[in-house]
From TrEMBL:
It comes from Jaapia argillacea MUCL 33604. Gene3D superfamilies: 1.10.287.410, alpha/beta hydrolase. The keyword Membrane does not apply. One of its GO terms (biological process) is proteolysis. This is Carboxypeptidase. Keywords: Carboxypeptidase, Glycoprotein, Hydrolase, Protease, Signal. The lineage of its organism: Eukaryota, Fungi, Dikarya, Basidiomycota, Agaricomycotina. GO terms for cellular component: fungal-type vacuole. PROSITE patterns: CARBOXYPEPT_SER_HIS, CARBOXYPEPT_SER_SER. Belongs to the peptidase S10 family. GO terms for molecular function: serine-type carboxypeptidase activity. The keyword Hydrolase applies. It holds the Pfam family Peptidase_S10. It is an enzyme of class 3 (hydrolase).
């Protein structure tokens, strides 16, 4: 079969061909409605190449950052990262958690020795449109993960086709929080799209794994586990009074029955919404009343302004600076005051009931096709806690279920100290990170990097 490469397409070849003064526009005849604008943007990590740009999907434009590996960029794996929300910018992941630099004050960045680009080339993407520096024209928007997945899969293919230095490299898709919903669908879209690429004579994406941190992959187990997190010693001593815990305990089987009937066995939008409202009232509200973002500490600043982490305000101020925007190539249409999270997009996804659709089934599908999955969770997180994540991994129906379930939790060690607990079998790994909350790479950077490096090397925790 003839290839698109035969006379119809000439790849750019290398990132070194890019200019720092203006965007280079990339496309591919296999994706006629998509283009990628990219430029060299030396910032954040002075030791490696840094690049920024936009994925243009007709009237929708997704902003991304790309950093080469500090190790061996010509051979190292490629990691794709997205934050969650839905509606939160991956600048949080970049400048606060796992990126090459951290922003702790508006006027400067500091080198992050524990960045995930220590041994990998890493993408950070603002998605869906309307998040961070991404934007849309003519009122277009995305309100479901299924819609967003098509855009991400096309972008990944265009990038690898144009920069053939990365062709065939092991590719890993990672995300946090609502990334537990995003990543399984994004990765599945890329895997399924590979068949079309091969048919067109193009190289398939070498998708190796998904990595999900504190993910919302099964909403039902997350909700039901709220009792365990605040009323038992699952991570810390109980933090809610006894009478409230008794009421929560009584609500657990009722909520399980309601969600199974209306949200899982047969999805009934109205009844499922009602079930979630009742269960939220009984199982979520008692924790919200404590004013804590984590089960281990109080919120720092108003959650709407800081996400309970004041450093997010410094990041927003840094990305509001005109000189930084010019350096990155941010479109002039983006509002001057940068916002880490877009609450309107969050509302759109909620109205579409996006989080209530089954996501763990995509993990099973990937595992059956040889794509590995790492599910890691900060032990102190509440919203997407380790108890709920462990439960869905154990309940997941796939060919490795019995072997995975027969493995007991064991400690994993970093520099002679216990970093958490883990179990692994047949390509699926579950791990907790002791002392970490919802943002593991921020709370435990050294352990986070060790986790990722072992995963990339195929070494057991």
């Amino acid at each position: 079969m003839s290839s698109y490469d035969e006379g119809l397409f000439t790849p750019l070849g290398s990132l070194n061909a890019l200019s720092s003064d203006s965007f280079t526009t990339l496309g591919h005849p296999a994706f006629p409605n998509y283009n990628v604008r990219v430029k060299k943007s030396d910032f954040c990590d002075g030791t490696v190449g840094a690049y920024t740009g936009y994925i243009d999907i007709e009237a929708r434009h997704l902003f991304f950052y790309f950093f080469e590996s500090r190790g061996n960029p010509d051979k190292d794996d490629v990691i794709f990262w997205t934050n969650g929300g839905p509606g939160c910018s991956s600048s949080i992941g970049l400048f606060m958690e796992l990126g090459p630099c951290r922003v702790t004050q508006p006027n400067d960045t500091s080198f992050n020795p524990y960045s995930w680009n220590s041994n990998a080339n890493v993408f950070f993407i603002d998605q869906p449109v309307g998040v961070g520096f991404s934007y849309a024209e003519y009122g277009e928007y995305v309100s479901t993960t299924e819609e967003a997945a098509k855009d991400i899969a096309a972008f990944v293919s265009i990038f690898f086709e144009n920069f053939n230095q990365f062709k065939g490299r092991p590719f890993h898709m990672a995300g946090e929080s609502y990334g537990g919903r995003y990543i399984p669908l994004f990765a599945s879209q890329i895997y399924d799209q590979n068949a079309q690429l091969v048919e067109a004579g193009l190289a398939p994406i070498n998708l190796k794994s998904v990595m999900i941190g504190n993910g919302l992959t099964d909403f039902a187990t997350s909700v039901l586990s709220y009792y365990d997190m605040v009323c038992t010693g699952a991570s810390v001593d109980p933090i809610v009074d006894i009478s409230t815990c008794v009421r929560m305990k009584q609500a657990v089987p009722r909520c399980q029955k309601l969600m199974k009937k209306s949200c899982i066995d047969m999805f009934d939008p109205i009844s499922c919404d009602e079930a979630m409202a009742v269960c939220g009232l009984e199982l979520q509200n008692p924790f919200h009343a404590t004013g804590k973002p984590l089960i281990s500490k109080d919120c720092e600043g108003p959650i709407q302004e800081t996400l309970c982490y004041p450093v997010t305000k410094a990041i927003s101020q840094y990305l509001s600076r005109p000189d930084i925007r010019s350096l990155l190539g941010v479109d002039p249409s983006i509002p001057q005051n940068f916002s880490s999270c877009n609450h309107a997009i969050n509302a759109d996804f909620s109205l579409a009931q996006d989080r209530l659709h089954p996501t763990y089934l995509y993990i099973a599908g990937l595992l059956e096709r040889g794509v590995k999955a790492l599910i890691y969770v900060g032990a102190y997180d509440w919203i997407c806690n380790w108890v709920g994540n462990e439960r869905w991994t154990l309940a997941l129906e796939w060919s490795g279920q019995e072997e995975f379930g027969s493995e007991g939790l064991r400690e994993w060690i970093v520099d002679g100290e216990v970093a958490g607990k883990t179990r692994s079998a047949k390509g699926l790994t579950f791990a907790t990170i002791a002392g970490a909350g919802h943002m593991v790479p921020y709370d435990k950077p050294k352990q986070s990097l060790e986790l990722v490096n072992r995963w990339l090397k195929g070494v057991k925790l």
